[in-house]
Amino acid sequence: MIKVLLAEDQGMMRGALALLLDLEEDMQVVAQVAAGDRIVPAALEARPDIALLDIELPGRSGLDAAADLRDALPSCKVLIVTTFGRPGYLRRAMEAGASGFLVKDGPVEDLAAAIRRVLAGERVIDPGLAAAALSAGPNPLTQRERDVLTAAVDGATVSDIAGKLHLSQATVRNYLSAAIGKTGTRNRMEAVRAARQNGWL
Amino acid sequence: MIKVLLAEDQGMMRGALALLLDLEEDMQVVAQVAAGDRIVPAALEARPDIALLDIELPGRSGLDAAADLRDALPSCKVLIVTTFGRPGYLRRAMEAGASGFLVKDGPVEDLAAAIRRVLAGERVIDPGLAAAALSAGPNPLTQRERDVLTAAVDGATVSDIAGKLHLSQATVRNYLSAAIGKTGTRNRMEAVRAARQNGWL
DNA sequence: GATGCCCCCTGACAAATGTCATGGGTGCGG
DNA sequence: CCGCACCCATGACATTTGTCAGGGGGCATC
User: Fold this and answer.
1) With an 8 Å Cβ cutoff, is A11 touching chain B?
2) Does B19 touch chain A (CB under 8 A)?
3) Residues β-bridged to residue A33
4) Sheet with strand A27-33: strands edge to edge
5) What is the CATH number of the domain that holds A98?
6) Is A5 helix (H, G, I), strand (E, B) or coil?
7) Which residues are within 8 A (CB) of B119 and not within 5 positions of it... i.e. 6 or more apart?
8) Which intervals of the chain form a coiled coil (chains A, B) (predicted)?
9) Nucleotides of D under 7 A from a protein CB
10) pLDDT in tens, chain B (201 residues)
């Protein structure tokens, strides 16, 4: 019997997937969590064979949680299940030790199949996405550039960002300018979009 | 037997919900579509009793499709099922003649229950959301202000927007300024966020 | 120990953005 | 007919943003 942990913040999605997996003869959902920081505790409690993790979760990113889980419960495989097939996400997932990366676009049947393949020792990755991740190259942004961009996502002004990060305004503008340059965009807003698109934030 | 049409772009979600609803004794998913402009044709073909519509769909918004469906197949009830419980969405859904508005956050059990309540003639609406929709008031933005804001979402410059909408640059800036004023924000980016948050776009 | 990369800052300049006052044209309801 | 709201436009202004050319300090690597 395959014991599954399910981490997904959308209640309806979580419930539907749990129900669906429980229908499989050889699978059983032994834990369900809605927040990223509940993953490791729940896993230590329930000892699943595989963890299905969404990326964008409240509390802690599924990618960070995957790395935590790798340390806390190495026997547990990780399969990332996400809405967004962003190159940077895939890359980070692999670095965090995930065994598979599935986008929620595909048919549901893929899910159980992917679980079985992962448990059989395979790596499950969308081939098109893998190509995109390779062609996109690694994240070109430095830590500080990411900080500044993430602080700029919801329309904060330069002085807002400077205040939040305890930086000079001129410095903030320099980082923004660098990020704009590296993303090949024309302004802050496009840079934020491009960085998010690639999973660089 | 309740015949259900399911419109949802995310394959995994769509499949899982379909499977789940088919498990109900008295329900049957008679049509599944992934794009908004497929809703009416599929409904005319399959003659469902109720249509479950996501809002943010490729092709045509679920809200617009709800209005179309109202004309094309008045016997079919509409239940909006969406990720985003935005006040403006709820308001528009009601204006489009929807009988219910469900957010995907809640437990799956709510879904079948909501379907039955809608078919029994009830209106199904999250009470907290209804309150938010009322307190937020109606959309204060004019058509043109919406156009300009939507054209500005992904970082387009003033001249980009002016070109796309065939307007003078000064005019675009006036509309943007008006939108910023009405949303009580400080710049274009915040205005876009606020307008989206409220479902005004 | 030189090189390179990142961090943080300054100052100055050009361009884009946001605001305001002002105008004319349309269509709608009182 | 008048008021009102919306549409589109202009010009002028202050502010913000993006760019460029610097300089200093830390840390790792060759």
Assistant:
1) yes
2) yes
3) A7
4) A27-33, A2-7, A50-53, A77-82, A100-103, A124-125
5) 3.40.50.2300
6) strand
7) B2, B49, B50, B77
8) none
9) 5-12, 16-22
10) 999 999 999 999 999 999 999 999 999 999 999 999 999 999 999 999 999 999 999 999 999 999 999 999 999 999 999 999 999 999 999 999 999 999 999 999 999 999 999 999 999 998 889 998 888 788 999 999 999 999 999 999 999 999 999 999 999 999 999 999 999 999 999 999 999 999 998
Q: Which residue of A has its CA nearest to B156?
A: A190
Q: For residue A93, which amino acid is it?
A: A
Residue nearest to nucleotide D18 (CA to C1'): A177
What is the b/e burial string over A170-194, where b = at least 16 CB atoms within 10 angstroms of the residue's CB? Answer: eebbebbebbbebbebeebbbbbbb
Q: What is the CATH number of the domain that holds B147?
A: 1.10.10.10
Q: Does A111 touch chain B (CB under 8 A)?
A: yes
Question: What is the C-alpha separation between A26 and A76, in angstroms, rounded?
Answer: 17
Q: What's the total number of domains in chain A?
A: 2
The nucleotide whose C1' lies nearest the CA of A177 is D18
Q: Which of A14, A111, A189, A192 to probe by mutation at the B interface, max B CB count within 10 Å?
A: A189
User: Can you read off the two tokens belonging to residue A198?
Assistant: 């690639």
Strand C footprint nucleotides (protein C-beta < 7 Å): 5-12, 16-22
Containing domain of residue B18, as a range? 2-136
The closest of B89, B47, B97, B99 to B71, measured between CA atoms, is B97
Q: Please say whether the beta carbons of A130 and A154 come within 8 A.
A: no
Nearest Cβ partner of A104 from B11, B111, B191?
B11
End position of a domain, from candidates B91, B112, B136: B136
